[in-house]
Amino acid sequence: MSQELDKLLSPAKLNGLELRNRVIRAATFEGMTEENGGPGDRLISHHRMVADGGVGMTTLAYCAVEADGRVRDTMMYVHEGIRSQLQRFTDSMHDASAKVSAQMAHCGGFSQNRYLQKKRPMGPSFAVNPAGMAYGIPFVQEMTEGDIDYVIQCFHDAALLMKETGFDALEIHFGHGYGLSQFISPKTNKRGDSYGGSLINRMRYPLRVLEAVRKAVGDDFPVIGKMGLMDGVRGGLEIEEAIEVAAMLDKGGVDALIPSGGTSSMNPMMLFRGDSIVNGMIETEDSPLMKMALKMIGPVMFKKYPYEELYFLDGARRVRDRVNCKVIYIGGATDVESLETAMREFDFVQIGRPLIKDPAMVNHLREQRGEYKNGCNHCNVCASLIGHRDGIRCVLND
Ligand SMILES: Cc1cc2nc3c(=O)[nH]c(=O)nc-3n(C[C@H](O)[C@H](O)[C@H](O)COP(=O)(O)O)c2cc1C
Predict the structure, then answer these.
(1) Given strand 122-123, what is the order of strands in its sheet?
(2) Rounded mean pLDDT of the chain?
(3) Which of 161, 292, 360, 371 is the most exposed place for a label (fewest CB within 10 A)?
(4) In the chain, which ranges are E strands?
């Protein structure tokens, strides 16, 4: 076995937390949330397969820190009423000797949640909310300083509950066009106060969130940041600024960064690469109006990005060279050769689609070493199924 595969499969520490190996299941919203907004048996068994399959740590995807932080009403949101479900989830992962992280997020103004408690989704600046057109929420309302303080408190309280219910690490979502990245991006943040304008100002809210989460969990608990390398739209975040975002998050106290890119709201294919998800999304969309909108905007919004292995390698290297914290590679680490490259250069690797295709990937790598073939062909049907009532699956396994 190569030295790199040895490294991949050997234990490693993240702020004192020992993982049995360096493979972390990436956050992939599975669309299997229970009606009360918590994880149930289906989500547990989905992640349990990944835990039994040998990963060092799995990640419970997109845990909104309040009900209005959900892009869709079918997403999870952290509240007291799901305490026992969260505990069952982490107990099950621990029974399989895997560690478990939760991705904490807020959608900001990017929302199609029909059951919003507030009148409108809230973001950095007033704007049109294309995702909400068909759901009667076509506009984004500018957050007041009081709204900002409120969401920061939600992150704090959610972090406390996650830690109390057995999560070993937390991943804050600073990317992909969700609430915190809407403040970081000059495309969506048009504020004239101390939360807008210069990068220091645009980072004020995300850094306050990080501070609040850190305060909730303490210094000796792993806090990871998933960030964007670029938005992939004109006037959006570009790589030069993103490297400074990484440096600021590092200084702000993250233990590790995951450099991703693109935005679910404006340029989703950039973060996946491979076959377009638009046709699948049209098929699974319930709202006839949204179906029509997707058909119309599909070609503009879902740009072509042919799949290639390690498609965020250059950006991830630049982040690594700028920060002191650990860097977790994500994006197209499917082949053994790519995993070896990732291990030569980074501390951990996050894997999404290949672990949907083969939840026992780590055990198989251990057995088959350099001969391992994953088989994910990046058809991205899994990603187009996030809105499907049965949740995601790999259709190649059908
Ligand atoms: C079905 C699916 C759902 C996803 N949901 C999320 C999510 O909830 N949060 C997130 O940060 N990224 C999400 N992603 C993106 C992945 O975390 C990851 O960045 C991307 O798939 C690239 O990694 P991969 O090449 O290993 O799949 C999702 C990806 C897929 C395929």
Answers:
(1) 122-123, 139-142, 127-128
(2) 96
(3) 371
(4) 12-14, 17-19, 23-25, 57-64, 76-77, 99-105, 122-123, 127-128, 139-142, 169-173, 223-228, 256-260, 326-330, 348-351
What's the CA-to-centroid distance between 383 and ligand 1, angstroms? Answer: 8
* Gap from CA of 193 to ligand 1 centroid (Å): 33
Our answer on whether the CB atom of 27 is closer than 6 Å to any ligand 1 atom is yes
Q: Which amino acid type is present at position 324?
A: N
| Beta strand pairing call for 122-123 and 99-105 | unpaired
Residues 6+ apart with CB under 8 A from 324: 250
Q: How confident is the model at residue 60 (pLDDT cuts 50, 70, 90)?
A: very high
Percent of the chain with pLDDT over 90: 90
d(CA 248, CA 211): 12
Q: CA-CA distance, 111 to 162, in Å (whole number)?
A: 24
* Structural tokens at position 158: 């959610």
User: Per residue in 303-327, pLDDT tens?
Assistant: 899 999 999 999 999 999 999 999 9
* Beta pairing, strands 57-64 & 76-77: parallel
Residue 112 pLDDT grade (very low, low, confident, very high; cuts 50, 70, 90): very high
Pocket lining: 260 vs ligand 1, CB cutoff 6 Å: yes
Q: What would the two tokens of residue 244 be?
A: 């400074």
Nearest CA to ligand 1 atom 3: 28
- Reduce the DSSP state of residue 102 to 3 states and report it: strand
Q: Which of 50, 3, 5, 24 has its CA nearest to residue 339?
A: 5
Which tokens in the block code for residue 386? 């996030």
Residue 265 is encoded by which pair of tokens? 């709201």
- Residue 297's CB: how many other CB atoms inside 10 A? 13
d(CA 114, CA 125): 21
How far is the C-alpha of 240 from the C-alpha of 44, rounded, in Å? 40
SS3 54: coil
Three-class SS state of 74: coil
CA distance linking residue 216 with residue 314, whole number of Å? 34
Report DSSP state, residue 131. Answer: G
Look up residue 20 and give its two tokens.
């049995």
Q: Is 224 in the pocket of ligand 1 (CB under 6 A)?
A: no
Q: Using the 8-state DSSP alphabet, how is residue 283 labeled?
A: H
Ligand 1 pocket, residue 383 CB under 6 Å: yes
Quote the CA–CA distance of 360 and 21 in Å, as a whole number.
14
